[in-house]
Amino acid sequence: MSLLHSFENAIFMSIVPKVDEEIMVKLVIIVLMIQLTVSGISPACGRAEYRIGQECCPMCGPGYYVRRHCTEFKSTTCVPCPSSTFTDAPNGLVSCRSCTFCDSSAGLRVKRACSSTSDTLCEPLEGHYCTDPIKDGCRGAVEHTKCSPGQYVNQTGTASTDTVCGDCVGNTYSDGSFTSCRPHTQCELIGFVVLREGSSSYDTDCGQRQNTVAIVAGIIVGVAVLAATCGAVGFIYHRRKRKRKAQQDTCLKSDTHMRGQAIL
């Protein structure tokens, strides 16, 4: 390197008096490139290029990947991404990226289908919320919490938040699906009696009030009707029995009379 530096200094000393500032700048650039080449360091590639060995190759556009790298005499060979793969930016990749699969077992569904230039975007299934959000999408979701009997839905779940439950207190109840606790039915106000007291998870059960007087009166009437029916049946039976006996007596007297006349 000392020999190279001495050579550079000799060039500068012999040229400086004869060149202007513009030429001086060009010479400095040339010298720097010589230094980089000798030291094994290559200049950086452009923004639309990628390095392969000592070459700066043109990148492939979104939706494409590198089939063959460039050479000193040929540019990069790019081909379209196969189905279910993509590249979403200029690249020097030798294969496209696989599209994301929206797994229903992970609580996901497709929000935006994959294309050659963009990956699949997933979103939570209905009744689920995202637990692993990414830009414009989701990588994992779980089902909304279900409120238990005795609780109400204080805040309905969304695609990004879980359901929030609250507890019923006092004389109120909810089966877990209500958005607010409901007061227990007051049976006496609607002319009924309590069959089962309400709790925080179910309402009071009401039933009709039983009328004792009406029940007793019904029993008495029933007994009276039964007794009257039995009496009528007994009366008819005895009447028919007496009538048959009278007929038998008449026949017997007639037979005795006829026998007496036959003897005479």
SSE layout:
Elements: H1 2-15, H2 21-39, E1 49-52, E2 55-58, E3 64-68, E4 77-80, E5 85-86, E6 97-98, E7 108-112, E8 121-124, E9 128-130, E10 133-134, E11 137-138, E12 141-143, E13 151-155, E14 164-167, E15 172-173, E16 182-183, E17 192-196, E18 205-208, H3 212-263
Transmembrane segments: 213-237
Domain TNFR-Cys: 80-122
Subcellular location: Membrane
Quick overview of this protein structure:
With 264 residues, this protein is an alpha+beta fold. Among the domains are: 1-41; 144-206, Ribbon (Tumor Necrosis Factor Receptor, subunit A, domain 2), CATH 2.10.50.10. It is 32% helix and 23% strand.
Give me the secondary-structure category: alpha+beta
Tally of alpha and pi helices: 3
CATH architecture classification of the domain at 144-206? Ribbon
Mean pLDDT: 83
* Total beta strands: 18
CATH class of the domain at 144-206: Mainly Beta
The coarse silhouette is rod-shaped
- CATH homologous superfamily name of the domain at 144-206? Tumor Necrosis Factor Receptor, subunit A, domain 2
Helix content: 25-40%
Residue runs with pLDDT of under 50 for 5 or more positions: 1-5, 37-41
Give the termini separation. 188 Å
CATH fold descriptor of the domain at 144-206: Tumor Necrosis Factor Receptor, subunit A, domain 2
The strand line-up of the biggest sheet is 1-2
* Beta-strand content bin: 15-25%
Order of helices and strands: HHEEEEEEEEEEEEEEEEEEH
Give the C-alpha Rg. 54 Å
Q: Could you give a short account of the major beta sheet? A: 2 strands, antiparallel
